[in-house]
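Predict structure. Chain length: 492.
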Amino acid sequence: MRAFTVAAVTAIAFASSAAAAPSAITSIEVKGTQAAGIFGGVAYVRTFGVVHGRVAADEKVAGLAALPKDASGGYAWSAEFETIAPAAGQPANSSVFVEAENRGSPLIIDQLNRVAARGAPSKAVYPEGMGNGWLFDHKISYARVQWQTAIAAGVPDQAQGVGEVITRDFGRLLAGPPNGRAGGLDLGAYKTRVLGGVSQSAWFVNSFIAEGFNADPATGKAVFEGALAIDGTGNWMAINRLAAAHGYKQYPYLNEAGAPLLPARLLTRPKSDPFYVDVANYNDFYRVRASLSAAGAFPARMRRYDWPSPHAPGSKAAFASCNGGAVIPVDPIGYAPYARAALLELMKAVGSPAAKDAPALPPNTLFALAAPPDDPVHFNALPGASAKVPALDANGQPVGGVRFAEVEAPFGRPLLPLPHVGLDSIGDTCGNTLAWAPFTPAELTQRYGSVDGYLVRYGAALDRLIAAGYLLAADRPEMLKTAAAFYASPAN
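Prediction complete.
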C-alpha cells in the first residue's frame, strides 16, 4: 500500500450570506492524501477529510425544526468524505461515480475495482494500484461522503434526512462552480455525476430520489445525471418524510411493513430524475419483495435487470445466527462483471465522454415469476400484497432475467435463502445468502465431459451476453479463469 500523507489540515471556506442562507457546503478540511497509482499514464491520488455545511430551515427534512440552529437559522453539519481522482496538474476527468456508503463502508468499489476497503474515509485502507483499476482505467473518478446517523457526525438520529441534504450538496460541490471551488482546494468539476448503492445504500439512493433530493435547489435540474441501485427493487429507507408519512420511526434501514415503490412513484420529477438502473438479485424476491416494484410500467429513462446471482455471494459458510452454526455451501456466483457493464453503459446513457465507446444499455430484462412458497421461514411475505418469486426451469435455474453464463452452463443450483429472511433489524441479513447444491464431479462429467467441454459452453454463453450488452468483452478472459476454478471445486 502507498503511504498516506497527513499534513496540517487544509481548510477552505466558502463565502455565504448570513441572512436566510441556503443549504450549502461551507468548508472542506483535507486530513490526508494517498497516492493511488498510475492509470492510463495519469497519476491518481486519494484525498480524504471532512466537509462542513448547513441545512437551511426550509429543507424538507422530518425533525429538522427541533435541531439547534446557527445565526442564519440553519443546522450545521459535518461528515467525512474521500475522492480518488487525477492528482493536481494531471489531465482531469469529466465523470465521477459517487458511492452511497453501506453501514459506513464502500461496497460497490469492491465489485468494480475488486478492491475491498472498509470503514470511514479516515480509516479505510486501499491497496496500491486500487485492485484492477477499472474505474480509473476508464477515466472515471470515485467519491463518497457519509450520510448515516451514528456514522456521519452531523446526522442526528431524530432528523436522518440531513444525510440526504449532505449527499445532494456534496454532488453539487463535485459539479464545480458555482457550487464548487474555482481556485484553491478543488475536488473537481465533473460534467457527469452518477450516484450508486448496493443493498442498504441502494435503498438510500431510492429514498434520495423519491423524496426529491436529486433536484438542485438553485436550478431544479438533476444533481446526479444517473443512479445505479443494486438490490434497489423499489425499497426505501425509513429516514425521512416517507417514514413519517407511514408512521415509522426513523431508522437507517427498511421497515418490515414498508412496500416497495413502483417506478411511477419513485421517479416523479422529470426535470431532476436521474437515468435510473435498478437491479434485483435472486433472493431479493424472497426477502425484500422485488417482484412488487416490477409490476408497473418502466419510464423510458429507467432499466430493470433481474440477475440470478445471490444478494451476497459466498462459498462455504457457517452462520451461527442463521443456520444453527452448521457449515453449508452457499451460492458463489458473483455479479461484479455485470455491475461494471451496467455502470459504464449508464455513463454512456447520460453522455459521459468516458463511456462513449461502451455498448448501449440493454432493454429491461425480467424473470418469469411464480407463486411463492407457503413457507414463512424462507419467504418474507407482505400482508395485502401478492409478491412472487422467480419461476424455475428443469435445472432449478430461474427462468428469464439476465442469463448469466453460470445459468446457461451451471455447476450447481441455487436453493432457498438462509433463514431468517425478514427485516427485523439492520443486522438481520441471513436472507441475503442463498443455500447451494453443487454438482458432483460425476454430474459435471456427465453434463460436459471435461473442463474443456464446460468452458466451450460457458464461453459461448459469455459471447451471447457480450453481444447483448450485459457484459464487457474485456471481462471475458478473467471470467473463463473463474469458471474453470468453479468447475474444479463447485462446492468451494
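Summary: The chain has a mean pLDDT of 93.
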